[in-house]
Amino acid sequence: MIVLLGGTGYMGRQFVATLRERGLPFVAPSRAETDYTRFDSLLEFLRRTKPDFLINAAGYTGKPNVDACEQHRADTLQGNTLFPVTVAHACATLGIPWGHISSGCIFSGAKVETDGRVRVERDLTQAALQSLLQKNPGLFHGFNEEDEPNFSFRRPPCSFYSGTKALGEESVKGVGQNYIWRLRIPFDQLDDPRNYLSKLQNYPKVYDNANSLSHRADFVAACLDLWHRRAPFGIYNVTNPGFVTSRQVIEMIQAILKPRRSFEFWANDEEFYRVAAKTPRSNCIMDVSKLLAAGISMRPVEEALEESLHQWKPLP
Amino acid sequence: MIVLLGGTGYMGRQFVATLRERGLPFVAPSRAETDYTRFDSLLEFLRRTKPDFLINAAGYTGKPNVDACEQHRADTLQGNTLFPVTVAHACATLGIPWGHISSGCIFSGAKVETDGRVRVERDLTQAALQSLLQKNPGLFHGFNEEDEPNFSFRRPPCSFYSGTKALGEESVKGVGQNYIWRLRIPFDQLDDPRNYLSKLQNYPKVYDNANSLSHRADFVAACLDLWHRRAPFGIYNVTNPGFVTSRQVIEMIQAILKPRRSFEFWANDEEFYRVAAKTPRSNCIMDVSKLLAAGISMRPVEEALEESLHQWKPLP
To answer: What is A75-132 written as a DSSP string?
Structure first.
């Protein structure tokens, strides 16, 4: 039996759906019945329910966006650092293996190959991105699980949100037996304020950058498959292979959904950060070789995007 | 037997001295032999040593001062929030009572009585302080253990250090059985970079404000006495009763130590924060009624200051 924490959130709801589809028995306690953020309540709950595996899909992302985390620092730390630590300690005490949804947003930029040498470009501005992409998109490489996060409290500047996610990883890694699943900008066919395809359609102006993305159901399937296959515990980047620019995704939206509106882009980074954003944004490319080498299949990001758009279900 | 964590720090060394004086058996593991910041190592260590009581005297204060914590956010969180949480979880798992050194710096200002009404003055500038003190110093009241911290991530602005200390308290309070001992600006007769009397003598200019203070050995004696008397677990302000202004302490230094140098004060808050400080400072008055009501005797702050200055031992 599986225990799912944070089952009502955007990712938690997908875990509920996939666990049901697969016929895997699980319980997803509500905080009203069990305050699992308290160590002693969680420990008592786990002693009683004796799960084979636990999934932490809870986290604090900020509403309407990551800027809100700058103002709600206690809640951001509680949700993304202290709560995972509490889960890690309870599971380590009882010997329960578990998985934690982390985030690729603890990285910024990509590894870029120029003149045969690979270097990290931490701050890929819209302008730099265009120039590099025109040369050769194949020269962009993602961050892997051996790379140290470069957008974190230890490698400032970073957003407060990213800082707490990186510290969460650092604090649970190797404490007992766990998977750290790195999600990156979730999307699928269901219109939702958390869905990247919804966000792009609703922004007054779009900020162009290159990112790896995670199809929501693909992500959850991969996480469960890692446990099902008893892959070694540790960190896994769980994104669809490849990367896309916001501009490319907008072009797909225009081609498939044929929206009536037109899309504008911020003129440059200066304008975006002056007008639309308070805290630095992570944009990054992830390497998923480790996930694929563990025998998990993930379709390319373009394929997952196209399918989501072809099956698009707008909010009523 | 007592386990002491952080035994090499400024407060930890005083715990070592007082425990020895009192003939109380203790072990103070070094991080080189036992990495007690890791939950599983700590748990194993405590299972093996089976202490009756544990003292957490570890923390991250920033060098040379609290401004450094703004740049070292991961270490500040690790030392002041995550580590106490780790101790709380390990002690709760094994049923070990313990005590944690917290700080009064999660408060700012004082409760000031004017026209028969008490209100919180959060930002006591030098100028406001002078004007209020001239009226009647007896109208200043301290914060008690029922008051919510007002200089914390939940009540910004605050320093990053204070934010992590307040979140540390919040995260360990009521998890198992523990004392939260609030220290406030330690001092004694031994010249030391952490000693308030040394700091005042070494600042190029002094920032005048009103504070409660903790004599180092008085603080440690009170903490141990609370446990010795089996006082109820919970939060205790552990400062010497009363408060002093920096200007008053400078006058005592001049009268007793007769230093050759003269002392200057910052002209006003604006100058202090522009030139000398990066992050807001907590200055506050604490109420110690709860400690005294628990039967712990603490001499008035003026008496402890005078004795320390009369026995002053400058660094060679």
So the answer is: HHHIIIIIHHHHHHHHHHHHT--EEEEEEGGG--BEEEEETTEEEEE----HHHHHHH
Taking only the tens place, the pLDDT of each residue in B95-114 is 999 999 999 999 999 998 87
- Angle of helix A301-310 versus helix A246-257 axis, rounded to 10: 30
Q: List the one residue out of A73, A106, A105 whose CA is nearest residue B77.
A: A73
The two structure tokens encoding residue A164: 């707490």
pLDDT in tens, B125-176: 777 887 878 877 778 899 999 999 999 999 999 999 999 999 999 999 999 9
Task: List the single residue in B with minimal CA-CA distance to A160.
Answer: B73
Mean pLDDT, chain B, integer: 95
Instruction: Kindly list the residues of chain B whose beta carbon comes within 8 Å of any beta carbon in chain A.
Output: 38-40, 43, 71, 73-74, 77-78, 81-82, 85-86, 88-90, 92-93, 152-154, 156, 163, 166-167, 170-171, 175-176
Q: Which residue numbers in chain A have pLDDT < 70?
A: none
Residues on chain B touching A177 (C-beta within 8 angstroms): none
Instruction: Tell me the whole-structure pTM to 2 decimals.
Output: 0.93
Query: Which residues of A fall below an 8 Å CB-CB distance to B?
Result: 38-40, 43, 71, 73-74, 77-78, 81-82, 85-86, 88-90, 92-93, 152-154, 156, 163, 166-167, 170-171, 175-176
pLDDT for B187 beyond 80: yes
Q: Give the pLDDT confidence of B250-305 residue by residue, as tens digits.
A: 999 999 999 999 999 998 888 888 888 888 889 999 999 999 999 999 999 999 99
Q: What is the ipTM of this complex?
A: 0.90
